[in-house]
Structure formats: structure tokens, C-alpha cells
Write a structure and sequence with these properties.
heterodimer; A: alpha/beta; Rossmann fold; six-stranded mixed sheet; four-stranded antiparallel sheet; 24% strand; B: mainly alpha; MetI-like fold
């Protein structure tokens, strides 16, 4: 059984449909990359999975459980799904260590000692051991985003959602965040990510999905999508993006 | 052109929406029942208390209510006038003081120091003391042209006291505008003053409206404090009645009038706060 299945999901805003009948399934340990123009619905789809948005139609199942059921406790679902935002969204009034241990302690009832020990292990693993006591505004964008990934990781999610995690970073800092995502993949983490980094997408994804105006137009392996896309819209999108890169 | 799809609501969604509707009705019912029950208990506790018959006589006397109503209402008009005159003056004073505190040029140091001293003093002194000091102190000076009319003195005292609070609200609003906004304006060649006038203040203004209105709700009530220097307004009228009849119903009249004035203001504050929240896309 798939870890995540999305069936016929619709989402409307002000009479405009942002998602128009999305179907997608994600297996455990699979890395799915969503590509498409801004406004194509990639971020909305991630927000629906994390129940930050309520779907207007369709079903999302996580581990076979219908999370879009009216009676679902959103907090329960979010415990097993980690999300990282484009703008980091670290809590500015807390140290790095407190940012990371907040959810393990308050939501998962872990003791402070235990939570901090695990947080320090994670920080160590991702090369941020010396930043535990620092406040977010003392860190570079890349460091902040790595902390945000660690914070999401600290609750041991079954699924990680990464929403344009490198878009707010300057190019020199992108690499260190991509490196951490690579490590997650090696560790077998199931991930859905949206990105404009086509090269990285091609390298890391098991599956690439192209969204166009709220429709999942094409799905395939990175090889297939990037070398022989079936849909004219996909071809057009990739050409635009790759041309822009070459300038 | 991308694939065209039209949304046909699925069975599942129809079922889901029906459940949501049923839940909404259920929540509404629960809210109503619990409110009614709460009010019922409250009324029962108050009316069941041993002193209730006495209290009803002294505070809820219908006849005293109708008798006092015209005079208390007339007195209340004085409160409204004081409020309406004081409010715009306070806004101007508060803004000027806030701006004075933001002056950076060394030549303006005395002005800045004065603004700091003013806010420190008048925020520290209880409003009622300011009213007493102004109300009895200024006429005692016997200065040519100094106001002796109690209402004017009351307005002056309230303006001095509230101007200090409002100045701080403005200053907080000005400081809350991100420095990058000033940098952007200055880099376009706008002067310090133009930056304040065209970039900083318009943004600060929106943020300070809810706290300002909150201060004004408070000011509306505090107009009753000028009764201490002899202005016959709503509270004083009510007290006059109470003193001659030993019935306190007129104070209830005054209280109801004040509530009738502050509630619309409070709702307006809520509305504006909610709107700015929405604008920030929360």
C-alpha cells in the first residue's frame, strides 16, 4: 500500500480552482518532485496534504487513513508529516535548540534532556553543532533553512514536504541545503518537494510530476520527463526554464 | 491550452458538506443552550441573594429611572462634548510629541527633551490628579486670559493626560515600520521629513488605529472624572439625584449611557483589527 494517496483533489479560492482533480500516490521511501510554473498549484497541494488547507473535494490518505475525513484530528496527522517552508519560519524568539525541541517536548511529550540530546545529534550530523545556542537572526539563510529541516525532522515524520526550500536563498547557500536533502534521501525518507532547481530535481527525484494550472499533466521518471516529455505544455515549460538558466 | 476540467461535486464531497452543516447546526445549538444556561444561573444567583430586594429598590427603581433620565441625559451631552473637543486635539498633540521624539538633529535637542519629559510626567500622574491640578491650579494663578470655565479646564487636563499616551502609541507605530522602508525612501532622495510624511506615517497610521481607538474608549469614560472639578455632567447629575433621594438608580442611567457610547467604539476597534489581520494574510 502506498504511504500517501491523493484522489481527485479539488481546491477553490474565490471561485477559481487552484487544484483541479489531482491524483497522485507516493510509496514509502519515494522522492516525488513537483514542478510547474508559479501558481500551478504545487504549494497548495503540499498545504492540503499537511491539512493547512481543507480540500474542496477528493480524498487524501496517509497510511490508508483518510486524513480529509471531517472527523480527522489535524494535529494527529501533522505529527507524522513534516513541512519546511520557503521562508524558513523559524521562531525568532527561541534559540536553535529550543526551535528544534519545541515539538518533541510539547507535542510528543519527550523529556527536555532526551529532546536536547536528539536535537544535538541532528545538529551535529548536519554540521550545525556550534549553533545550538544561537538565535535565528544570527544565522545565514542557508543555516536557518537547515535548522528548519532539522526542526521538521525532530518529530520523526513519516513524510516530509519541502516547499521551495531553496528559493529564498542566494546561490552560494543553496548547495548546503540541497546536501541535507540528499542525506535525507539516503536515509530513506519519503519526500514530496516543489522546486525550481531542475538539475537537483533530476538528480534526486524518483518521480517527477508536472503541474499545469491545477492539473497534474504528466508524471514520469526524471529521465523521461527531462529528455522526452510527452505533453507539449511540459516541453514548453522545461524549455522556458532551461533557457532562463542559460542566460 | 491546458486540459479543461469542470468540477462535478463528488458524492463524497456532498456527504462531507452535509456532515459539516449538521456539525455547524449542532455547535450553534450548544452555544445557545450554554449561553442561556449561564445567564439563567447568573440571574438566579443575583436575584436569590439575601440583599436582592434592597438592591432592586435602590438600583433598579423604574420610577427613579424615568425621573432622572432627562437630566442625566442632558449631563451626558456635556461628556460627549468634552470628548468630541478633546479627541482631535489629543490626536494632534500626540502626533506632534511623537514626531518631536523622533527628531534627530542636535539643534532640536530641547524639543526632544521636552517631549520626553512631557510623556514621562503625564503618563506617570493619575488622570484624576491632573484634572484636579489643572482645574484648581490654573484659575488660582489669576493669569490674564487663562481659562476659568470648568469644561475648558477639563478638556485641557484630559488632553494633557491622554496626549502622553497617544504620543507613545504613535511612537510605537512609527518605530514598527521596518528600517528598510526608510532606507528605500532616503535612497530615492526623499528628505527625512518627506520620508516620515509619505512613507513612514501612512504605514504607521494603519497599525496604530486599533490601539488609538482603545485609548479613546477609555477617554470617553474618563470624561466622567471632570465632575471632580465641578462640571455637572452625567455622573454628577446622577450623584445629585442619589444624594437627595437615597436612590442610586440614576447612576445606573449614567452607566447605561456610557456603555451605549463605548460599545459601538469597541466593535469598530474589533472590526479594524480584524481587517488589518486579514490584510496581512493571516
Amino acid at each position: 500500500m502506498s504511504l500517501l494517496t491523493i484522489e481527485g483533489v479539488w481546491k477553490n479560492y474565490h471561485g477559481h480552482s487552484v487544484l483541479r482533480g489531482i491524483d497522485l500516490s507516493v510509496e514509502a521511501h519515494e522522492v516525488v518532485c513537483l514542478i510547474g510554473a508559479s501558481g500551478s498549484g504545487k504549494s497548495t497541494l503540499l498545504r492540503c496534504v499537511n491539512l493547512l488547507e481543507t480540500v474542496d473535494d477528493g480524498v487524501i490518505r496517509l497510511d490508508g487513513v483518510d486524513v480529509t475525513d471531517v472527523g480527522t484530528d489535524a494535529d494527529e496527522v501533522r505529527k507524522s508529516v513534516g513541512i519546511v517552508f520557503q521562508a524558513f519560519n523559524l521562531f525568532p524568539h527561541m534559540t536553535v535548540l529550543d526551535n528544534i525541541t519545541l515539538a518533541p517536548r510539547r507535542v510528543h511529550g519527550m523529556s527536555r534532556a532526551r529532546a536536547e540530546e536528539e536535537a544535538r545529534e541532528l545538529l551535529d550530523r548536519f554540521g550545525l553543532a556550534d549553533k545550538a545556542g544561537a538565535y535565528p537572526d544570527r544565522l545565514s539563510g542557508g543555516q536557518q533553512q537547515r535548522v528548519a529541516v532539522i526542526r521538521a525532522l525532530a518529530t520523526r515524520p513519516r513524510l516530509m514536504l519541502l516547499d521551495e526550500v531553496t528559493s529564498a536563498l542566494d546561490p552560494a547557500l543553496v548547495a548546503e541545503v540541497l546536501e541535507i536533502i540528499r542525506e535525507l534521501k539516503e536515509g530513506g525518507m519519503t519526500m514530496i518537494l516543489t522546486t525550481h532547481e531542475m538539475g537537483f530535481c533530476r538528480e534526486i527525484a524518483d518521480t517527477v510530476c508536472f503541474l499545469d494550472d491545477g492539473v497534474l499533466l504528466e508524471r514520469g521518471t526524471p529521465e523521461q520527463i527531462f529528455t522526452e516529455p510527452r505533453e507539449p505544455r511540459t516541453r514548453e515549460f522545461l524549455r522556458t526554464v532551461l533557457d532562463a538558466r542559460r542566460l | 491550452m491546458s486540459e479543461q476540467r469542470t468540477w462535478v461535486k463528488s458524492e463524497r464531497q456532498i456527504r462531507r458538506e452535509r456532515i459539516r452543516r449538521i456539525r455547524a447546526v449542532r455547535s450553534g445549538t450548544v452555544a445557545t443552550v450554554s449561553t442561556v444556561a449561564f445567564l439563567g444561573v447568573l440571574v438566579a444567583v443575583v436575584t436569590g441573594s439575601p440583599g436582592w430586594p434592597r438592591v432592586r429598590e435602590t438600583f433598579f427603581d423604574a420610577e427613579a429611572f424615568t425621573r432622572a433620565w432627562p437630566d442625566v441625559l442632558a449631563g451626558f451631552w456635556t461628556n460627549v462634548q468634552i470628548f468630541l473637543i478633546a479627541e482631535p486635539i489629543i490626536l494632534v498633540l500626540g502626533l506632534l510629541v511623537a514626531l518631536a521624539r523622533n527628531l534627530r538633529a542636535p539643534a532640536f535637542f530641547p524639543l526632544r527633551a521636552l517631549a520626553v519629559a512631557y510623556t514621562d510626567v503625564f503618563r506617570g500622574v493619575p488622570t484624576i490628579l491632573v484634572i484636579l491640578l489643572v482645574g484648581f491650579g490654573i484659575p488660582a494663578l489669576g493669569l490674564q486670559g487663562a481659562p476659568t470655565d470648568e469644561i475648558t479646564l477639563g478638556v485641557v487636563a484630559l488632553t494633557l493626560s491622554y496626549g502622553a499616551y497617544v504620543a507613545e502609541v504613535f511612537r510605537a507605530g512609527i518605530d514598527s515600520v521596518h528600517p528598510s522602508q526608510r532606507a528605500a525612501a532616503r535612497s530615492l532622495g526623499l528628505s527625512q521629513g518627506q520620508t516620515m510624511r509619505h512613507v513612514v506615517l501612512p504605514q504607521a497610521w494603519r497599525r496604530v488605529v486599533p490601539p488609538l481607538l482603545n485609548d479613546f474608549v477609555s477617554l470617553q469614560k474618563d470624561t466622567a472624572l471632570v465632575s471632580t472639578i465641578g462640571v455637572v455632567e452625567a455622573l454628577r447629575q446622577a450623584q445629585i439625584y442619589a444624594a437627595s433621594t437615597f436612590n442610586y438608580t440614576p447612576t445606573l442611567v449614567a452607566a447605561l449611557l456610557f456603555i451605549a457610547l463605548t460599545i459601538p467604539m469597541a466593535r469598530l476597534t474589533d472590526h479594524l483589527a480584524a481587517r488589518s489581520q486579514r490584510r496581512r494574510g493571516a
